[in-house]
Specification:
The protein is an alpha/beta fold and 348 residues long. α6 packs across α11. The longest helix has 20 residues. It starts with 7 loop residues before the first strand and ends in a 15-residue tail after the last helix.
Length: 348
Amino acid sequence: MALDPRSPVIVGVGQFVHHAAGLDDALEPVALMEAAVGAAGTDAGLGAAPDVDALRVVSSFSWRYGNPAWVVAERMGLAPRELAYTSAGGNTPQTLVNTTSREIQAGQLDAAILVGAEAWRTRMRARREGAILDWAKAPDDEPPVAIGGDLEMTHPEEAERGIYLPVQVYPMFETAVRAAAGRDPDDHLRDVSELWSRFSDVAAMNPFAWSREPRSAEQIRTVSPHNRMIGSPYRKLMNSNNDVDMAAAVVICSVERARAWGVSDDLWVFPHAGTDCHEHPFVSNRDSLARTPAVEIGGRRALELAGTGIDDIEVIDLYSCFPSAVQLGAQSLGLSLDRQLTRTGGLA
């Protein structure tokens, strides 16, 4: 059966992790992006970043470039007709893959680079040392194309009670998951720490993980000076870690463009299906904190579109900012927690 030349394929991926010794050898986010994009081009067998129609950057908290895609393109000598920047959110990288795949299939794009980076570790180091970062800025007259819209995530009455940060919200999800399962707090803490220890073992084998030190379940659940309580029941090692300098990039294009570039077809990865859903943005308005209906609906629909079932999927990577996110995602998709649920080692 002949392939549709408009079928989207991922042909190259790149990651970059930079453990700077100090500010002198630190890299800003666009430099991290440049390294990741270069790695993706090499992975595709192209030797360098290819010419594309669109360069799309995932929202970053580390620095306000105005238009980071413009800065990356200038640094790399690229001239895409679209320079885009997404809204904030843990879902945006996957949404970007979905959106770009659909536009390639529709003939609106032939090729795109998707990239994101954070240099929060360096940003916080500079703040502690009282240093002023002389990082780049895009010209004011070069605004990016906006992809997505920011959601208002905090209800005024939630804000009045000091509930607006993930480290405050996700522990409530965890307590709700435990209560719905009827588990004793100590038993549940043991189960969660064992889950996170398994994620840690995967990170230890991942050359692009920020922290590659395997942690035992006992280390993860034991409060110590280096593992303080953040929001019960979460110790520090159970929380998402944003104290990193790292980047990732994807090159995605049509089958026709992949062939024109000469990319070997054994490198092609076909996105079969993708869905975008979200829970009610206000946590206090949800009828239950122990379920994620949007993941149930979106997961079911993605599997239907791909013509497969969850038991047929061999490679799983669940969003893992906190243990409750993994448990709720697995529950919504019909996955056992005994399965391998991460390919990277998670976000902790």
